[in-house]
Amino acid sequence: MSEALIDIKGVRHAYQTASGPLPVLDGLEVSVPEGGFVAVVGPSGCGKSTLTRLVAGLMKPDEGEVWLHGSKVTSPRSTVGMAFQNPVLLEWRSILKNVLLPLEIVPTKLSKAEGEDRARHLLKLVGLEGFEDKRPSELSGGMRQRASLCRALIHQPEVLILDEPFGALDAFTREDLWQIMHAVKAEEPFTGVLITHDLRESIFLADQVIVLSGRPARTQYVLDVAFEGPRTIDHLYTPEAAEMLNTLRHQIEIAQGRAPETTRRIFSVHDRLFLHWVF
């Protein structure tokens, strides 16, 4: 396995509220290899988005350390790209100029012409060739999210953080974007961190799924995704997928306090088929 590009070591963090500190992370340990793609799942409010802000250097932990490529993260990193559930595209700029916006803010070695060529290439890669001069309001939600992905990648980040970017889209559009993400990952050399509530999304996109416990969050469980080779949506309808999803659902129930780990059993897909046939 490659050397860890992201290394979160013993991180503890709490938010200050009117009623006192609200602990959200408690001794969190996460390691992501260079070129890897990790999905993070867990109960609502357990600190998943806090984790992404720590990696991006947008906030500092109360305790513990966050390392990125062998360097301790103490401030915002220009080598991190982020895409969110809301694309937040600027209506007064064309799609092409929205994608180019980070190059006006983040230092880059790209010339203006090289930046525009890269933006056009990325838009073509995600299926938006011919829409460069359109305004955001002229695009569908899925198309706007594709443009947001291009904007997050335009400055060639080492790390791409995806904070529930497909959560507001319909099922068919989500599946389409999942497949586009694989095409993008095959061409763009980045290390990915995906925050999601969709377990199917987590196993389709990631090499590894990290389950966080309830707040304050710890690393409760790590699942290595069993798929091999290029993935298609058909992979989600295999016994291997059913087994992984069953395991993750059980872990989420544990994190929510609804399934004591010592008393609940995880049934394999073969067990469930047998029980259905018998009873």
Description:
Helix content is 33%, strand content 24%. The chain has 279 residues and is an alpha/beta fold. The protein folds into 2 domains: 182 residues, Rossmann fold; 76 residues, no CATH class. Helix 5 links the parallel strand 7 and strand 8. The C terminus is likely disordered.
Number of helices: 8
| Helicity level | 25-40%
Helices and strands: which structural class?
alpha/beta
Silhouette:
globular
CATH topology of the largest domain: the name is Rossmann fold
CATH top level label of the largest domain: Alpha Beta
* CATH superfamily caption of the largest domain: P-loop containing nucleotide triphosphate hydrolases
* Biggest beta sheet attributes: 6 strands, mixed
Percent strand equals: 15-25%
Using only C-alpha atoms, the radius of gyration works out to 20 Å
Strand order of the largest sheet: 6-7-8-3-9-10
From the N-terminal CA to the C-terminal CA, the straight-line distance is 45 Å
CATH architecture of the largest domain: 3-Layer(aba) Sandwich
Total of domains: 2
Mean pLDDT: 87
Low-confidence stretches: 262-279
**What pattern of helices and strands is seen along the backbone?**
EEEHEEEHHHEHEHEEHH
Q: What's the gist of this structure?
A:
This protein has 279 residues and is α/β, with parallel strands linked by helices. The protein has helices spanning 48-56, 95-100, 112-125, 141-153, 171-187, 199-205, 239-255, 269-278; strands at residues 4-17, 20-33, 37-41, 63-68, 71-72, 80-84, 159-163, 191-195, 208-212, 219-224.
